[in-house]
């Protein structure tokens, strides 16, 4: 080979090597979350043991059957990362590693919090062996697990009967949140098998919701030790499964039981204490499948398009309005069904015409095809107003639309020449003039 050609060949080889590495990376980015296709597609699953991949196979297969690409990694693998070159490699994260003390690679609590803050979704499953790291991640999401080591939820009234007696830490739960947007339209008939640690949520935090709660008789304690003091959390304040929808519409699912995702719990029959009905199969599969659709934006994700406003009888948007103008406002709202955008139909979408406070607040009408519209008169106040739609409903992503528009008063040549309400004053003026004329004639010509 010509010695002068050797450096050029080396450059070509390096360039081809770069392309070989870059093309898979670009392909990964092409699968990422986008506003037009909001369903997460590439999900990182961190586990303590790769055996979870087979022991929880039904749950994972349900995700894969809906088009998700799962990347299974050991939680302490030194090569794992959530982002590279400033771009996130995954749309969602599943933490099935309750006992992990330290994540590998560049993942830590701050990285997971930043992952959620950037709009990505998260599922956390813990158990009685939950490490301080997992508790810290859950606390960042507004959930506090019971701090008593080895504590599990115990219920002497709502446990699942097995054999001659029952394990009172194996609970048959059925206190669900009432929301079709979160759990789907089909009711979960069979109880949910739960064995694990309970957690509490701050009632003042309106971003965290309890999806599956304990019965009033439940309490959290270590079954291997004698209960000397009242339990830290008890009754309906114990949450088995909670969800978080952040202000950026990122979604988080937090469960106190990893076993409730397992094939064993999915396929087990359930006989709840005190109930004569034995269910051949628990409701775990239906419950967790439906709630995973919500977490990964297959349901309850809204978008607004074609926001328009104009004067009645016109089609073009004006640069400003005049006081007392009649106007029309319209917007189209759609919900993501997991595969396509479908019209969102509701009767509680409101429009505000806002300046410091809403001067107009009106519920919009819908054509049942996703289009909402309202007509109203501009207030008799001039200034800089905003059209505002603030839509927040349980289980749905929030919509916040605003558009600024100035409102001007009448110009000097736009007022009515003769105001009806002023006719009495007009009459008084002319009558005074006529009276003065009569008085003058009488005074001048009368001797």
Automatic annotation (TrEMBL):
Pfam families: OST48_MD, OST48_N. Component of the oligosaccharyltransferase (OST) complex. Residues 42-295 form the OST48 N-terminal domain. InterPro entries: DDOST_48_kDa_subunit, OST48_MD, OST48_N. Its main location: endoplasmic reticulum. This is Dolichyl-diphosphooligosaccharide--protein glycosyltransferase 48 kDa subunit. It is found in: Endoplasmic reticulum membrane; Membrane. The chain crosses the membrane at residues 12-33, 423-445. Residues 309-447 form the OST48 middle domain. The keyword Nuclease does not apply. The keyword Transmembrane applies. It is a single-pass type I membrane protein. GO terms for biological process: protein N-linked glycosylation via asparagine. Keywords: Endoplasmic reticulum, Membrane, Transmembrane, Transmembrane helix. Signal peptide: none annotated. GO terms for cellular component: oligosaccharyltransferase complex. Pathway: Protein modification; protein glycosylation. Belongs to the DDOST 48 kDa subunit family. Subunit of the oligosaccharyl transferase (OST) complex that catalyzes the initial transfer of a defined glycan (Glc(3)Man(9)GlcNAc(2) in eukaryotes) from the lipid carrier dolichol-pyrophosphate to an asparagine residue within an Asn-X-Ser/Thr consensus motif in nascent polypeptide chains, the first step in protein N-glycosylation. N-glycosylation occurs cotranslationally and the complex associates with the Sec61 complex at the channel-forming translocon complex that mediates protein translocation across the endoplasmic reticulum (ER). It comes from Oldenlandia corymbosa var. corymbosa.
């Amino acid at each position: 080979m010509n010695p002068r050609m050797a450096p050029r060949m080396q450059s070509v080889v390096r360039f081809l090597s770069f392309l070989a590495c870059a093309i898979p990376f670009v392909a990964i980015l092409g699968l990422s979350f986008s506003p037009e296709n909001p369903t997460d597609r590439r999900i990182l699953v961190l586990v303590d043991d790769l055996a979870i991949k087979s022991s929880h196979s039904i749950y994972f297969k349900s995700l894969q059957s809906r088009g998700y690409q799962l990347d299974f990694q050991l939680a302490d693998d030194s090569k794992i990362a959530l982002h590279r070159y400033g771009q996130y490699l995954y749309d969602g994260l599943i933490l099935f590693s309750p006992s992990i003390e330290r994540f590998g690679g560049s993942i830590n609590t701050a990285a997971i919090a930043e992952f959620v803050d950037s709009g990505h979704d998260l599922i956390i499953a813990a158990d009685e062996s939950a490490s301080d790291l997992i508790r810290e991640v859950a606390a960042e999401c507004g959930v506090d697990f019971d701090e008593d080591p080895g504590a599990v939820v115990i219920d002497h009234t709502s446990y699942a009967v097995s054999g001659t007696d029952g394990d009172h830490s194996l609970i048959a739960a059925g206190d669900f949140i009432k929301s079709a947007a979160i759990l789907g339209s089909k009711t979960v008939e069979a109880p949910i098998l739960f064995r694990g640690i309970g957690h509490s949520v701050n009632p003042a935090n309106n971003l965290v919701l309890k999806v599956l709660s304990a019965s009033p008789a439940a309490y959290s304690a270590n079954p291997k030790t004698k209960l000397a003091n009242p339990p830290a959390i008890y009754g309906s304040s114990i949450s088995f499964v909670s969800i978080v929808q952040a202000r950026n519409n990122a979604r988080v699912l937090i469960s106190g039981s990893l076993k409730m995702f397992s094939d064993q719990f999915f396929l087990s029959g359930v006989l709840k204490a005190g109930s004569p009905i034995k269910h051949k199969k628990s409701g775990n599969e239906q419950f967790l499948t439906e709630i995973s659709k919500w977490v990964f934006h297959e349901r309850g994700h809204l978008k607004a398009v074609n926001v328009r406003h104009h004067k009645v009888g016109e089609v073009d948007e004006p640069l400003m309005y005049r006081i007392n103008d009649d106007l029309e406002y319209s917007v189209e709202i759609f919900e993501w069904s997991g595969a396509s955008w479908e019209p969102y139909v509701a009767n509680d979408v409101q429009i505000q015409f806002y300046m410091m406070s809403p001067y107009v607040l009106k519920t919009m009408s819908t054509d049942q095809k996703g289009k909402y519209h309202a007509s109203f008169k501009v207030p008799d106040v001039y200034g800089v107003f905003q059209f505002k739609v603030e839509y927040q409903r349980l289980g749905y992503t929030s919509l916040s639309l605003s558009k600024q528009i100035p409102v001007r008063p009448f110009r000097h040549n736009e007022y009515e020449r003769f105001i009806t309400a002023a006719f009495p004053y007009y009459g008084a003026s002319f009558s005074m003039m006529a009276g003065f004329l009569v008085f003058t004639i009488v005074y001048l010509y009368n001797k």
